[in-house]
Amino acid sequence: MSAGGLALQAWGLACDRGGRRLFGGVDFTLGAGEALWIRGGNGSGKTSLMRLLCGLATPSEGEVRWCGEPVRRLREDYHRELLYCGHAAAVKDDLTAWENVAMASTLAGNACDKRTALRALELAGLGHAAALPARVLSQGQRRRVALARLHVAPLPSLLLLDEPFTALDTAAVEALSERIAEHLRQGGMAVYTTHQAHALQPIRQQVLDLDALADVPPALAERAAEDQAYAHAPRAGGLGAFARRAAAGVARLAASAVAASGRVPLPC
Ligand SMILES: Nc1ncnc2c1ncn2[C@@H]1O[C@H](COP(=O)(O)OP(=O)(O)OP(=O)(O)O)[C@@H](O)[C@H]1O
């Protein structure tokens, strides 16, 4: 695909949070009809990467481009091209399910009346609860309310879905997968995160594993493992300071090996 075609591109993206590098060197080009599955464990940076891709946060290094243009320059023009459904379902407790759908879609620039919102909720499997205030809905039902926006036409080209399958039952997962696949068949694009073993089938899909891109400075990796060793070394029963230091020394060697491999288990 040419640089000027319909494409979402990441160039050498890096993200630092809380004084440490979550990931670096994220490169991809997503074209029309393609999906990108961002996976990784808790805290690996999936939501942080989604916020970079939305243009809601600025990368420490690199750039996000839409149709060849940096998104920081496109701003609202880019936002009109995407639908972002965040990790925490942004559902207002005091509004009914249908009011939530209508408001979220309209605020995102896709005007939505009551009739359209009711239809969208029906397609999301929540027609029976359309008039209930969101505060009485279950987590899975709230998630369905948030995702009902996917049934309000016209959808923008790019879907950015953070943990869309969380709290959904099997039928809802299948329905959502089909909705995304339909969007891709029509030439749209989708980026979604999940740490669960789930993949959309059958579609053209790239996979980005953030666990494999974790970028931790070796010195930090050593310190973390050494601190852990001190914390877990026996403090009674005949083992004194010498034994604790010996245990930490073993941990330091292990940490060096981990740091050399570029991976370190981070505390949750
Ligand atoms: N504003 C911030 N300041 C400091 N640390 C942050 C900030 N935002 C995120 N983090 C840290 O960055 C790491 C990655 O967070 P993020 O939410 O992107 O991970 P995730 O992969 O989406 O996690 P999960 O699967 O648990 O939702 C976490 O350790 C988190 O505490």
From TrEMBL:
It comes from the Bacteria. The keyword ATP-binding applies. GO terms for biological process: cytochrome complex assembly. Keywords: ATP-binding, Cell membrane, Cytochrome c-type biogenesis, Membrane, Nucleotide-binding, Translocase, Transport. GO terms for molecular function: ATP binding; ATP hydrolysis activity; transmembrane transporter activity. Residues 8-237 form the ABC transporter domain. InterPro entries: AAA+_ATPase (IPR003593), ABC_transporter-like_ATP-bd (IPR003439), ABC_transptr_haem_export_CcmA (IPR005895), P-loop_NTPase (IPR027417). The keyword Repressor does not apply. This is Heme exporter protein A. It comes from Pseudoduganella namucuonensis.
